[in-house]
Structure formats: C-alpha cells, structure tokens
C-alpha cells in the first residue's frame, strides 16, 4: 500500500476509507433528487443509476485482480490504488459536468 506499512497506519486507513466510502452509496440519490425536475421520475432514475454502478462493481473485482497480478509474485498495490483513484476522479468529473450543465458555472446555487 502507499506509505502504509504498520498495523496502526493500516487500521487508520481502513477506518478513514470506511467512513468516506459511505458517500459513494449515500450521495448519488441526493444528486438525482436535486437534478430531477419531474419528481415522479426520481425512483426510476435512482434505480438506473444503481444498475449502472452495479456493472462497475462487477467489473471492478476482476479488473483489480488483473492489475494486481501483472506485477509479478510480490503483491504491489500501487497500481490498484491508482486504478481506484482514477476511477473515482472520472466519476467525480462526470458528476461535475452534469451539475455544470444543470446549474452553470455558479459555485453556490440551489439546483
């Protein structure tokens, strides 16, 4: 892992990851509610979004395993961490583009 070599740092990383990863489950429905003008379509949009996230979840395990195996007999986690970080950054960019399309360039706006 990146800069993590002791038990204390691994536990700290696991706690922080667990705390902040809850956002990936809790935030998308809030975004879709805010971005949907016709409130009767909220349920179908949230369902479709989680269906697409399911494809990413299914592909993430085998994809991560392939990245991890390409580094030889010793497990080098750096490539896998970079893969996860880039995936999160791409998702954040997509959410940002959607928000900009909906609200424009204003930072503090009620959508």
- What's the gyration radius in Å? 18 Å
Regarding quaternary structure, how should these chains be classified?
single chain
Number of domains: 1
Amino-to-carboxy terminus distance: 39 Å
Computed structural class: mainly alpha
Which segments are poorly predicted (pLDDT under 50) over 5 or more consecutive residues?
none
Any idea what the shape is? Answer: elongated
Helix content: over 70%
Largest sheet: none
Count of DSSP strands? 0
Mean pLDDT: 83
Strand content: under 5%
- In sequence order, what are the helices and strands, one letter per element? HHHH
The DSSP helix count reads 4
Give a short summary of the structure.
The chain contains 4 helices and no strands. The protein is mainly α.
What keyword list fits this structure?
74% helix; 111 residues; 4 helices; elongated; mainly alpha
Q: Could you describe the 3D structure shown?
A:
The protein has 4 helices and no strands. It has 111 residues and is mostly helical. The relative contact order is 0.08. The chain crosses the membrane at residues 6-35, 47-68, 80-98. InterPro entries: MFS_trans_sf (IPR036259).
């Amino acid at each position: 892992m990146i800069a993590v070599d002791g038990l204390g740092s691994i536990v700290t990383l696991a706690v922080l990851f667990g705390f902040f990863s809850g956002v990936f489950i809790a935030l998308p429905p809030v975004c879709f509610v805010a971005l949907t003008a016709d409130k009767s379509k909220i349920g179908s949009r949230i369902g479709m979004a989680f269906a697409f996230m399911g494809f990413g979840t299914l592909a993430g395990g085998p994809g991560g395993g392939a990245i991890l195996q390409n580094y030889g007999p010793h497990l080098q986690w750096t490539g896998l961490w970079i893969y996860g970080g880039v995936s999160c950054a791409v998702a954040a960019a997509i959410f940002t583009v959607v928000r900009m399309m909906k609200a424009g360039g204003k930072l503090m706006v009620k959508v």
